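re: that chain from earlier
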Amino acid sequence: MEFSIATLLAQFSQDKLVAGKYLEKRLNCEDEECQEKLLVALDALERIGVLSKEMGKYRRVYEEGVVEAKLRCSSKGFCFAIQDEEGADDIYVRESHLSTAWNGDRVLVRVIKEGSRRRSPEGEVKVILDRANPSLLARIKKAPVGFRAVPLDDRLLFELDLTNDSSQLDDAIDHLVHVEVIRYPLGTSLPLGRVTKILGSDAEAAADTDIVCCKHDLPQTFSEKVLESAKAIGTAPASGKLPKADFKNRLDLRSLLTVSLEDEKYLQGDKPQLIENAFSLEPLPENQWKLTIHIADFAHYIEPHSSLDYAARKRGTAVHLGELKLPMLPDSVIERCSLALNEERLAFSIILTLNKHGIILAHDIQPSVVQVDYQMSYQQIQEYLRDESQVGEEVKAPVEMLDKLFFTLGPVIKAQRLQRGGFDLHMEIRSPFKDEGRLGTLAIADHLPIQAMLMEVALLAGKAVADHCRNLELPAIYCTQPEPDMMELEDFLKLGINLGLDLDVESEDDLQSRDYQGFVQEIAGSSAPKILTEFLRSTLRSPMHSTKPGPHFGLAYGDGYCHVLSPGQRFADLQVQRVLHLLFEEGRDRRSTRAKIRVNLGSSTCYDQISWNILPPQIQTQWEQDMAMLINHLNERDKVAEDAERDLIGLKKAEKMKERTGEVFTGLITGVQSYGFFVEIEELMVEGLVHVSSLKDDWYEYRSRHSCLVGRKNRTAYRLGDRVEVQVKSVDYYRQQIDLVTVSGGSDASNEDFEDD
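^ sequence. v structure.
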């Protein structure tokens, strides 16, 4: 296995001696080459003082003034080390102090000059912990000897010598290629690379999914070693029946009416269907309900520290690029673990008791065996619920159950979320997850309300698991979402106010989810709901993983929430599922072996009965360390996936606008800067820039306080919310930049006092 210095150092806890053999096992170093690389890395880290060696074992040395950070460089060569801790100073790193580190690399930086009120601290890179660019997009050029690759990312200020045979590249000069980095810079020697794929004569000739995958280094296949590890899991029994041994210590819920719901496009795919969730609902006395959310038990089959586990960990999350799905796990694993129709499957079942108001009274989390009785699409059940005459006897039972779920229980569950201050956005749902996904709040597609209502219900599973982990003090990965930055919100508020909306926040120092709930209500009656909704979405910060329970802004949770519904698509969910296994396999359900009364460790009723540590101290400590070392990696993988999915959307928009160069559209000004203003074309939901240099009729001055550009002589103003007619001038496909020029529009500012800022 390949490991990074970051992964290696994560195996060291404070002041603990670690043996080389232990590191080999933890890093899955099975072959001699990997073991040799590990020894070289340990020796190098010892020589530079990051590790010390005592009695053949290693200890991490923590040096004052040395911090971990991620490099962010500009095209002009300015680099800053961005610390993970929110509010910590960015550290300026001169080019001479980069030590061959590149933009995006995770590094250890030594502060060599303290900062002041006006200047950032300065630092030098001591160790490169993790490389962010193992491959890159580039253009081929002829060199004095052989060929070189010039990166398309202008923040990578270098060229690579290429090791390919000349005959392979003779016809590829100026072509767009994907380059694998074989060796990073060494002394004065340039880095070495190898062209793995010629994508096309330019970006427009290349497939958009190829560009995105290569740009973000997204693997499209699994190695033979990983596929062999997946094959070792075995296939599902042809009979659809599990061996009796699998039933041990599990609830048998096969007799429970169970339904899975997916999008019809997904069910029509030719690949193995990844069905991670199914649902059951039973009425209880006194207007109560028993809602059971079943989650496919992937953790039972994927052995920790196996090749399969490391591959899933490295990917972190599945990535969805239109029709191209880049899974976290091989198809054979998906087929083995998914909740297939009419087949016995292993699961974790979250059993929730709710009152008539949708409030959870109790929960019970148990490993189980389930059998999905019906598999339906959102569109199908929506038609059934709209027209009862279509419901035949063969589907009467599940339709009746789903009718109660969506029209009796669902609305009161939603009412509880809205009462907390939660909000939803009316926009197209692109998420493959049954929770808030990467958006951070629920999205409602007007043509598919059933999907949003199912998400409403499914969210309760994450809350129940988070409460359980918190109350039992189990190591866990929580999902948090920070509140938006007020500065990011200011343009949205100005835009809305200019459009006549009543937008306000209770406190600028403490944004609340309830503020956004009010924004959504105002947007619904506005003249530009799509644009304002997309603008509001852009102000939300991405959900993040944490080892501590914290607030989730979009869902209005303040005391902890976990992602649990997608263990086959998100590694964080898989790890949480492993914690639940750990609870039942290693957890103490009584104070001592002499005690006769045991507690149900899966039930919320056990909290008041427990006065002892659930897990043995050594296991608790090890798992807490393992979770802590995962957090940064998983957050970064989520960011890569989010950027890649957004890039594909941007490329498709750019491609569409390239075809419409020269056409005139009406749009809304959504942003104003000193260099020009941004216009959103609502018809296409595409944003372009009108550069100030294209405004030839006057000299325009920027008024930041009023977010507008004002002509000195003609007093024409371009401000947030103004409608303008624009023509598509040019499109840079790869950079997704659309240049516009104004045809007409703007405001008359002759009677207004635009004072200087």
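The chain has 17 helices and 35 strands.
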